[in-house]
Amino acid sequence: MADDLLSQLKTMTTVVADTGDLEAIRRFEPSDATTNPSLILQAAQHENRRARLAEIARHATDIDDALDTVAVEIGSEISALVPGFVSTEVSARLSFDTDATLARARALIERYGRHGVGPERILIKVAATWEGIRAARILEREGIHTNLTLLFSFAQARACADAGATLVSPFVGRILDWHKAQDPEADFEGDRDPGVQSVKRIYEHFKGHGYETIVMGASFRNSGEILALSGCDRLTISPALLEELAGTEAPLTRRLTPLDAETSAPEPQDEAEFRWAMNEDAMATEKLAEGIRKFMADQRKLETLLGELRKG
Question: Which GO molecular function annotation, any one, does this entry have (predicted)?
Fold first, then answer.
């Protein structure tokens, strides 16, 4: 009888937990873990964190200080449970401000250091806007690893690799959502899934041109998308889908394999080329803006909660 799908997937892909739920991380034993404002909000609302949340709110210098304290405390707890990277996101509010992103990223790394977690364990998550990618280039040169998130287009992926980002997170499910909304009757199963196709193209480009940037598929809507990308460098998966994979016994065939690298990488895009490519890609433009808004909406909910606790 075949092993469960999760066990097989772990032999060909680094499995990452897309959650701030410590119990889920303990159960599924992923190599890495990712968080974002939505996941931090969920984790912060657990009843067992309420007293600590109130203490943070009362002692913080301002709401930004409180937000970063919460994110780093949860991230530090997660770092004790996984051997690899923990991703922590810079505020979505800073997605179009390179200098502010740099300052916030450095501050997060400093906070982690006070918890005994070194920079080699942390990926600073930044939205893959032009300004965010510029910040990532600078941070990588300073030895701060980055995870470029909310990635929906090949133009974004190319710019991230040119910047030397440690990792990119192309969003599979949200790409599928957009195409389903445009053509509800279309068949997007398996390899016809446009989100799967996007990750495959990025993976093949990076491997074919010798980029060291890690490709981590994210935002899955079903296990079929995950299985179609088996062999990808990393896949970040929600607890519900980890549960499904762990409970299913079936043979799993590797779908992605590195190609031999070309002798040289293509010419990097400049800002005008990047912005034009994004303008031509309605899906990427809409989903990037929507993703920033959604992350910011959950951050505001956490800000409100911390503000109420701060007032007592």
Answer: transaldolase activity
